[in-house]
Write a structure and sequence with these properties.
alpha/beta; Rossmann fold; six-stranded mixed beta sheet; four-stranded parallel beta sheet; 4 domains
Length: 449
């Protein structure tokens, strides 16, 4: 296929959201988002990679066409919009087959990328660590396998630009497919090593068992802002879809002194490409290992109900079922500062009367103290009082005690031993007994004397 003549400006984009089926509830019974919300999200995705959206529209599709998805009338309308706005790129917020993508490019004489391609493009720009880069590249290659005929020559893009906005070329297709498959196998091996390394890290953390709290939620729900608010970390937090991609883990102290590990994961999105779910499984396994999952929701978004359904669906795909989730998931209703005063007050009252729910503003800090108290309550369980005497040969346990218990009182003895009064969970009390061995343990009555 000869290379298409390029339009004047590939950074000027037309965004369309094809609507195949109507209704607020899909076949599975889950809440679906409004057509306008879908379009707004697609525009946000386009702007996340610095594209100028010059025209956007919801496009009803009564009968999808195998070759182009859209009917001839709609194709002509979009072509008119491209001409009128000097745009050289069309973003279709719907999966396209390779044939549909190629045919639409011919009809519009413009570059065309679908929803999956756009999300992969964003992930490619956001990945900053070696692991993130490997995961994104693997997802790119698996996606491109079916589109090799139009986009790859010796695994190099022929058009200018990054990601899928690079161009069609096709020579020595069989050789290219072999090279592509070899590269996929190599990346899978490297990611398997990443997975094993993560397992080793988790095993080490279990030996010094700090509870893990994982933040999950729809993209742009405010996870990174909340993460920074709680931990004081400097994770990128912007009003942008997929502002952060690579997972971040930080230690933090709960109000009563207990140390936990907080994990900020990649944001979820509706119709998340299967290539990405597979590639990022090593990262998402951190969620599976979490003792507590904070589901952060943007309550200022009128579409937050559908977004929550998407997040829960992905968690279920990862293996966190509804019954398990009820015990491990705490809903965090974020961005209450973006609501009008009356709506905000009503939401705060509703959260107070709803189990497993806390209303917060990660930006202003409102409600964060209540959230920390609830995390502490969930993870601490029933605390038991212990009075412990650490002889000189057991003083190395002091840092462990400060990390895993609430130290109420400490007294350094003349013989070099240390007496401490602590509160800790039954599990950690058993671990302390194991570490003490023959170490002296005395009841609180003796301590008080």
């Amino acid at each position: 296929m000869p290379e298409l003549e390029k339009r004047r400006d590939d950074s000027r984009a037309v965004v369309i959201a094809p609507v195949i089926k109507k209704g607020k509830v899909d076949a599975s019974g889950a809440v679906s988002r409004s057509d306008e919300a879908r379009l707004a999200e697609a525009i946000g995705l386009a702007r996340a990679i610095d594209l100028e959206v010059v025209f956007s529209a919801v496009v009803p599709v009564s009968q999808p066409k195998p070759g182009t998805l859209l009917g001839t009338g709609k194709i002509a309308e979009i072509k008119t919009a491209l001409d009128a706005n000097d745009a050289g790129l069309v973003i279709v917020d719907h999966p396209l087959t390779p044939v549909q993508q190629r045919n639409l490019e011919k009809e519009w004489n413009a570059k065309v990328i679908d929803r999956t391609g756009l999300i992969l493009e964003i992930f490619g720009r956001r990945a900053s660590t070696k692991e993130g880069t490997l995961q994104v590249e693997l997802a790119h290659l698996n996606y491109q396998k079916g589109r090799l005929v139009r986009s790859w020559t010796h695994l190099e893009r022929q058009r200018g630009g990054a990601g899928f906005m690079g161009g069609p070329g096709e020579t020595q297709i069989e050789a290219d497919r072999r090279l592509l498959q070899e590269r996929i196998v190599r990346l899978e091996r490297e990611l398997e090593q990443v997975r094993r390394t993560r397992q080793l890290h988790r095993a080490k953390r279990k030996k010094v068992p700090h509870p893990i709290v994982a933040l999950v939620g729809y993209t742009n729900a405010g996870k990174s802002t909340l993460f920074n608010r709680i931990t004081g970390a400097g994770v990128l937090a912007e009003d942008m879809l997929f502002a952060t991609l690579d997972p971040t883990l930080r230690r933090m102290k709960l109000p009563q002194g207990r140390t936990v590990i907080l994990s900020d994961t990649v944001g979820f999105i509706s119709d998340l490409p299967t290539h990405l779910v597979a590639a990022f499984r090593a990262t998402l396994e951190e969620v599976l290992e979490a003792d507590l999952i904070l589901h952060v929701r943007d309550m200022s978004d009128p579409d937050n109900g559908a977004q929550a359904s998407d997040v829960l669906r992905i968690l279920a795909d990862l293996g966190i079922d509804e019954k398990d989730g009820a015990e491990r998931i705490l809903e965090v209703w974020n961005k209450i500062d973006d609501l009008p005063a009356e709506a905000r007050e009503a939401l705060v009252q509703k959260a107070a009367s709803t189990p497993n729910t806390i209303a917060v503003s990660a930006l202003t800090g409102e409600g964060v103290d209540a959230l920390m108290a609830e995390i502490n309550r969930r993870l601490s369980g029933v605390l038991v009082d212990r009075d412990v005497v650490l002889p000189i040969d057991k003083l190395q346990l002091l840092p462990w005690l400060y990390d895993h218990s609430i130290v109420d009182e400490r007294e350094d003895q003349e013989d070099g031993s240390v007496r401490v009064a602590v509160r800790l969970t039954e599990t950690e009390a058993a671990e302390l007994d194991r570490r003490l061995g023959q170490g002296e343990k005395r009841p609180l009555e003796d301590w008080e004397r």
